[in-house]
Amino acid sequence: MLAGAATLVVAAVVAVVSWRDAGAFVWALAGVPVLAVTPMLALTARGRPARPATTVAAVVVVVWFLLTGLGTGSYFALPGALLLVAALLTWAWPPPPAGHPVSRPAGP
Hints:
Elements: H1 2-22, H2 26-45, H3 51-67, H4 77-92
Helix pairs in contact: 1-2, 1-4, 2-3, 3-4
């Protein structure tokens, strides 16, 4: 979730900073990463597994950073790295099976 939020923040900053130079292209420059992380954030917010969505978001944001890396796209390097780590972690630690009770600390 943090990686997706970082991507949204960077996209907003890129949009504001680049509007004067890029004009309408800013929608593509900032919009591609936003569209990539939206399914991941939606699934995560609902508490559903988002492994494939996280992996796709990581690949899209990193590729977008590499394609636009000599310009404003370099701002997406950190969110791309965070998304890659998040994708690796989602595959390394699978969620508990369906119907498995979530352990909660004992209350007073």
